[in-house]
């Protein structure tokens, strides 16, 4: 079933598809077929088992359960406190709308998402390696009076695996008291963040645009984002275009705006020309190194053989310069 709500319609002035880097015709968006909407909000419990805490003596436990069903010793925020938090424009189904297997994105799209204060919104797409993808995001603020104002937000591009770590940080900092002590990762190098409970990166550790009102960038995949598990299962990573309106662990990200963030997202795809297989890069590098290695050997062999060449000369009469003896 395709779900459409007011959050998926453009409420702000439309981001023109004829301006900037995003130029092209925009067809009707096929929700949950080529793109789906996802949200993280502070008023929604992180998982359905979050409230499942009854113990043998009838007293509630102070710990939650992790995905494997094991007890988790993190002290969590009570469900009552969560329910009293202000709600944003997101709808409840958006917090669980990440299970769709989407078609490869081979058509343009344009849509608007509304992100509440201290929340994050995302469009999920399945980027195709056969197409160059250009993404343009324009951000505005929407006040309680319905007026538009300037606003800044953080825009990230992540794979599904990277987004899971990002989502884990959001949930830890909003639903567990212990992780509120982890405020910033400024002093942790990106290559070490995967070992930190609050660490996360964007796609290729490059597509992160913070404190922005407008941004456009292009992505070209070398190959489909496919990875294999230890049991031989093949998983395909989908991509998340994230608009961040909360204060995450990055030191230079946008602060809380305390208003609704309106993000117009335009995605333009362009079919690529000849796509060479990935192994051609390895072959080219090997041939280049092979030529560099053989060039000195070839020049040395030619130099050493230069003096061994025999030059044949024709026999000719050599004039005798001596005068014969004259008789006295």
Helical content class? 10-25%
Rg on CA atoms, Å: 33 Å
Mean pLDDT: 77
Low-confidence stretches: 1-16, 48-74
Give the strand content.
25-35%
Biggest β-sheet, characterized?
A: 6 strands, mixed
Helix-strand sequence = EEEEEHEEEEEEHEEEEEEH
Number of H/I helices: 3
Q: Report the end-to-end length measured between terminal Cα atoms.
A: 135 Å
Q: Tell me the number of strands.
A: 17
C-alpha geometry = elongated
- By secondary-structure content and strand pairing, the structural class works out as alpha+beta
Structure description:
The protein is an alpha+beta fold and 328 residues long. The chain has a domain at 6-43 and 85-271. The chain is built from 3 helices and 17 strands. The chain has helices spanning 79-83, 160-175, 279-304; strands at residues 18-19, 22-23, 35-40, 63-65, 71-75, 104-105, 109-115, 120-127, 131-142, 148-149, 153-159, 208-212, 214-219, 226-228, 234-236, 239-244, 260-271. The strands form 5 sheets. Strands 3, 6, 8, 11, 12 and 16 form a 6-stranded mixed β-sheet that branches. Strands 7, 9, 10, 13 and 17 form a 5-stranded antiparallel β-sheet that branches. It has a two-stranded antiparallel ribbon with strand order 1-2.
Describe the protein's topology:
Blueprint: E1 18-19, E2 22-23, E3 35-40, E4 63-65, E5 71-75, H1 79-83, E6 104-105, E7 109-115, E8 120-127, E9 131-142, E10 148-149, E11 153-159, H2 160-175, E12 208-212, E13 214-219, E14 226-228, E15 234-236, E16 239-244, E17 260-271, H3 279-304
Parallel strand pairs: 6-8
Antiparallel strand pairs: 1-2, 3-8, 4-5, 7-17, 8-16, 9-10, 9-13, 9-17, 11-12, 11-16, 14-15
